[in-house]
Design a protein that fits this description.
Blueprint (H helix, E strand, L loop, with lengths): L11 E10 L20 E6 L2 E9 H4 L1 H7 L3 H16 L6 E4 L5 E2 L2 H10 L1 H11 L2 E10 L19 H35 L4 E5 L11 E10 L3 H16 L3 E9 L2 H5 L3
């Protein structure tokens, strides 16, 4: 969702965390404090059953100049992002919560409401598509080569000369590594397909087999799952986790989350 510029001449801007759709007005009791230095959380009603979670943000800390300066400080950005997401996730039990981008600021409550009224068609479509759904995250890492990976190219016949033997061995190693990589990609693709069948939507983020602490990252995906199907989805994921662990793969399941990925998809 678009970010509006704040008026630096005023002391505070209206900081927007999320839009909440719910039959009853959400309760703010027990919600996190929000970004450091901001005021108490407030609700703005902008449509029937639609509410905006906002706070007053001092421009000395969250004005355009201050944010531009803060973006170079990863620790500062990280603290803000964690606080922002904590507020969004406090409303996960609503019919649907639509997260706004970090540092979404408006000059006033009225400007925030007017902006969302102008974006009503897209918000209505999001509420209809995402209502009563949660996002689940899945990451697959290869911790060690699978025991059943084909090894037809690992053992090469002895060669006559040491030079030929060396080249033959290197080729065998490359071929074995290629087989393992192909096998791992097939494992990740099969897992993604099976979990997608239990989801309303799925998004596979580019993993590019990036190295993580334990091994290559083969799959980083988000799944949009109806709340009524969450138990079946997680049960399937846990079964896959146990099976893959015996083959040397580590499967991590996180959630439930607000539909971060699937709100961004519509932008």
């Amino acid at each position: 969702m678009a970010r509006a510029s704040a008026d630096v001449k005023k002391g505070n801007a209206t900081y927007v965390y999320c839009v909440v759709a719910a039959p009853k007005r959400p309760r703010l009791t027990g919600a996190p404090a929000g970004l450091p230095g901001t005021g108490p959380l407030r609700l703005l009603d902008f449509d029937a059953g639609r509410h905006i979670v906002v706070t007053d943000a001092p421009l000395s800390r969250y004005g355009e100049v201050a944010i531009r300066r803060g973006l170079s400080d990863l620790e500062w950005v990280s603290r803000a992002a964690v606080a922002h997401e904590a507020v969004v996730e406090a409303f996960i039990d609503a019919t649907v919560v639509l997260p706004m981008k970090l540092f979404t600021l408006f000059t006033s409550d009225e400007r925030a409401i007017a902006h969302l009224h102008g974006d009503r068609r897209r918000i209505d479509a999001l509420v209809k598509r995402l209502a009563n759904h949660h996002e689940w995250g899945v990451r697959l890492v290869l911790e060690r080569p699978a025991a059943d990976v084909p090894r037809s190219t690992v053992h090469a016949k002895p060669a006559r000369s040491s030079g030929v033997a060396y080249l033959t061995q290197k080729k065998a190693q490359r071929d074995a590594a290629a087989e393992r990589a192909t096998h791992a990609r097939a494992i990740a693709a099969g897992l993604y397909d099976r979990l997608s069948e239990r989801s309303r939507a799925a998004r596979r983020r580019p993993a590019n087999e990036l190295l993580v602490q334990s091994g290559p990252l083969l799959l980083d995906a988000a799944f949009l799952v109806p709340r009524s199907q969450s138990r079946a989805f997680t049960a399937l994921a846990r079964r896959e986790q146990r099976v893959l662990a015996r083959q040397g793969y580590a499967l991590t399941i996180t959630g439930p989350w607000p539909p971060y990925t699937f709100v961004q998809d519509s932008e």
